[in-house]
Backbone:
């Protein structure tokens, strides 16, 4: 029979670990640390970025960070701002939903150049919680972006 | 005598539940799910929106989401971005304070059209934590908006 | 021998306390409560604000809030929006990293006038967790700002 206290504790630890994992994306993306960003995902994880295609596997995800679009953002100055996610936990897997806003710097000013919906699928493996799939879609009135948040 | 471990655990669970409740508002508002938004509140809950009057009870809160102002936002593309709240817990009730920013999409760009202070009164009932009252006021220099955060 | 359940619980409590401490900065800054803002720091704490020098000790930190730059922001209307931090805990000390965005109101509109990287050093003392040092740097393409997030 499982200890109810230990069980309740584990639920909180799981939620904390997932929140922390997602909180690391923005700071790592803004330092340009491609390998560390990719390591948030599982080996075969997927990152589908609205308007920019789908990266499959850590090397492809790292390539998004080391690629010209992201490097140009870093050179100008940018912030990948994510909100604290709403988390639905189900044993060793979870779905989290949040917003992301990318601010881009230009001439001493910043503009929110991407405002997007994010749906994260996460799984607990031998190395703890990892991202299995992240879908990101611009909140530009499209039904597909709204659907990620429901 | 209460078990001190169980007591500490419950405090953390309460804070987690409140944070999660507030984290659900933005994604639900941006999907336009009026009933799910309203269900974050208690039956007789109040949502006082700066510059837009006061909605009392779930049907009135749902009407804010299904009404023309919010539907126009959704059609253009929007994000209801909330910060992770500072929570003051007192037994079965709590007060949480956070910011909210509404980004509105237009012609491939986004603008922060509402930047507001939010004060949430929450209560734990038979169905868990619910919002009893949310006050929202535009941070436009007014003392009333600042007062919500103190 | 330490109780493993109590140990796990304390780790969660520490992370919750740190997150809560950081979540209080924005609302307190936007109410202009200089003493309450300064009390988030230890007596000899440091707040190094990008482009505005370094405040050492609570009186100097309070002076940032009661000073003309911040008071002008408050008069116009502002929001100090912080993201939920990524926290690295090590016993009685911790490092947390997050973004901050200052929105300034003017003529019914808001603009993100400061978008910055933040690195917090925190310590647990007799009065609980406090900020020992906060470094803040504008994300304007400078390597120094990016370094705070890594």
Residues:
């Amino acid at each position: 029979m499982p200890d109810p206290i230990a069980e309740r504790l584990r639920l909180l630890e799981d939620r904390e670990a997932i929140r922390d994992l997602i909180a690391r994306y923005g700071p790592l993306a803004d330092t340009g640390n491609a390998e560390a960003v990719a390591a948030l995902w599982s080996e075969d994880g997927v990152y589908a970025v609205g308007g920019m295609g789908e990266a499959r596997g850590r090397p492809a995800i790292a390539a998004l960070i080391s690629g010209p679009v992201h490097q140009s953002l870093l050179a100008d100055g940018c912030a990948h701002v994510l909100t604290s996610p709403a988390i639905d936990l189900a044993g060793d897997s979870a779905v989290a939903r949040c917003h992301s806003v990318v601010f881009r710097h230009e001439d001493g000013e910043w503009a929110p150049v991407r405002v997007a919906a994010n749906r994260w699928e996460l799984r607990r493996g031998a190395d703890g919680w990892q991202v299995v799939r992240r879908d990101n879609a611009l909140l530009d009135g499209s039904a597909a972006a709204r659907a990620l948040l429901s």
DSSP finds five helices and seven strands in chain A. The mean pLDDT of chain A is 96. The longest strand of chain A covers residues 109-125. Helices of chain A lie at 4-31, 34-38, 58-66, 68-76, 143-148.
